[in-house]
Design a protein that fits this description.
Elements (H helix, E strand, L loop, with lengths): L3 H6 L1 H14 L3 H5 L8 H26 L14 E2 L6 H7 L6 H15 L9 E6 L5 H6 L3 E7 L2 E5 L2 H18 L2 E5 L13 H13 L10 E2 L12 H10 L7 H9 L2 E3 L6 E3 L7 E4 L4 H11 L3 E5 L11 E4 L4
Parallel strand pairs: 1-6, 9-10
Antiparallel strand pairs: 2-4, 2-5, 3-4, 7-8, 10-11
């Protein structure tokens, strides 16, 4: 039921949901993810993106019109960077002003959701692996499995065709039983091997032509961070279109994004290992969207000093408490 209370309380949220409902053909209950309503991959994606955009719109209204501090969604002197986990980059694209027309934005989200549904399996095609990932990388390669999402140094999601996932899962479990430092869990209910080469043809021949017709602009507030390369995008519309296309079939580098932009670490040009910058940078991380709590959990696991403002649900939108994650504790 995420978003229902927000729509009841804030006209700014209801407006975003009404647009999403009209353009997607989904019901409000589907967008709210009502537990009694059947969901599809398309409704889940559109619902998550709408929820996050509604949060941004409400928070921005509260900051601009009611003086709510800290001002994290309104125009400020601080440097703002938008980073998203998988499709979480889309709300940042809209909030930054790179795509300013909300109706066209939701239309694009819906088309991306349709593309995600073009490859679907009944059996598991993704796994969550925890532990010593380096130990089993060769097994993954031999089974044709790809790392699709980097959560942390010792948590990754991998994807592949169901038979390959089954074979890799059995082998990893056998290794885990012996050495005890790696575990794999098949993810039920995820229909596609997202962020793997299985979606390359969908991205290049279906989604890329769709993006050609979309008019992006340079962001007017903040910088977009690519979750494909973990680099800051220049703001050129052509570069953003390339990035959104590759996002469908390339690994999401969430771990690298957080190390570089939240923890202010620099990759060593020779080893690739991250080293602290000489000059400390004052960073406030803002958790938005339905994955916000998981985001904070990962930040705590990483063990770096950081200030975090949790706006991940309706109740926290007016929260001004900033939690300090201290590596020493």
């Amino acid at each position: 039921n995420m978003g229902r209370r927000m729509c009841e309380k804030y006209p700014q949220a209801l407006e975003k949901y009404e647009v999403s409902k009209d353009l997607s053909g989904l019901t409000m209950e589907q967008l709210w993810m009502d537990p009694n309503t059947k969901q599809t991959p398309q409704s889940i994606l559109t619902g998550c993106v709408t929820f996050t955009c509604a949060q941004i719109a409400v928070r921005r209204h509260l900051e601009q019109n009611e003086g709510l501090e800290p001002r994290v969604m309104s125009e400020t002197d601080a440097e703002v960077m938008w980073a998203g986990f998988s499709a979480g980059m889309y709300p940042g694209t809209w909030a930054s002003g790179a795509l300013r027309n909300y109706k066209k934005f939701i239309g694009l989200v819906q088309k991306r959701a349709d593309c995600m549904g073009m490859i679907s399996f009944d059996d598991p095609c993704m796994m969550k692996i925890e532990g010593n990932v380096a130990r089993i990388e060769k097994i993954l390669q031999e089974c044709g499995i790809e790392i699709s999402l980097d959560h942390d140094d010792d948590i990754v999601m991998v994807g592949g065709y169901p038979d390959d996932i089954e074979r890799a899962h059995k082998t990893i479990i056998e290794i885990g039983d012996v050495v005890g430092d790696v575990n794999a869990k098949k993810i039920e209910g995820v229909k596609g091997p997202y962020h793997t080469r299985a979606f390359e043809w969908v991205a290049k021949y279906i989604f890329k032509p769709i993006l050609r017709k979309v008019r992006f602009r340079r962001p007017k507030q903040g910088t977009l961070i690519s979750n494909v390369t973990a680099d800051a995008l220049s703001g050129r519309p052509k570069e953003l279109k390339v990035d959104l296309t590759q996002q469908l079939y390339k690994r999401v580098r969430w771990k690298d994004m957080m190390k570089r932009w939240a923890f202010n670490l620099t990759p060593d040009p020779e080893t690739g290992d991250y080293i602290p910058n000489q000059e400390p940078v004052d960073v406030l991380a803002v958790a938005l969207g339905p994955g916000g709590r998981y985001f904070i959990k990962l930040l705590k696991r990483a063990g770096y000093n950081l200030r975090v403002l949790d706006l991940s649900d309706e109740r926290r939108l007016t929260n001004t408490n900033i939690e300090c994650i201290n590596a020493s504790t």
